[in-house]
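User: Please predict the structure of the protein below. I'd like the answer in structure-token form so I can feed it into my own downstream comparison script.

Assistant: Understood. Taking the following sequence of 286 residues as input:
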Amino acid sequence: VGAAAGVGALRVVYHAAGVVSDGVLGSQSERTLAAVYGPKVHGASHLHRSVATLGSLRLAMTSSVASLLGSSGQCNHSAASAWLNCLASVRSARGLHGQSSQWGAVAEVGYAARHADMDRFIAMRGMRPVSSELTMHAIGAALFGACATVMAVAPIDWRALGAASRRYGNGAASSFLRPMLTRFGKRAGDASARSRDKGHGGSGALATLDDVLEAVQSVVGVDGVDADSPLMEAGIDSLGAVELRNQLQPFAEDPLPATLVFDHPTARLLHTSLQRDVAVGPALAA
């Protein structure tokens, strides 16, 4: 930065560094936090200090939509990205240029493109991949100041996001998005209500074994999972266990534990546990 500034040609610095180290909260550590915070938080902080005397320089940063919507197993990534958003706002308040783009999964290149199941993962949360055309447009806007201090680059399917919010709980959508979900997600809500009327997906609705298998298959992304096969062998990892617990929560009277899949390691055992939970819940209430 110093060498380029001396030449007089430096106008924009674009901070795009990032590392992920995913895992449920109980498995996170100082090491995994440092691995994610290093490139994003410490890297951006260093750039901020390095260009402090260059008042006209633009500093644009790559954040993540995880800081807007949250993301299971990515508390460190969400927090680091939120820090970048705050840095951009602080710079703006001081009369300096600061811009943070909350990126969704970009199609064709990068992390999401290298992971085949990412499209399914984000679709379940009401989002679509960011196209190459939109990517270039957003980068241009961030570099040349034609956008808000903090902007999200994430094509959203509002009805699907509304359904995800109901399926996973209020963590699927932050509070300022909910008025838009009310407006754009009405049809999804009506469909969800009809499903509950039929006995599927309502709080305490009796889950069938097929319901459990469908949830398992949606998490692992394959069909034909055997009801008596260990879920870990079917492809459920620690993040998948959280995902599966969230999908099964509507079938339970009480909050399901984070250890649900480890305590009941097959689809049939999960089904038995859910039936027992629904049966015991009303008895305790009585």
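That's the full token string. The chain has three domains: 2-156, 158-196, 199-281.
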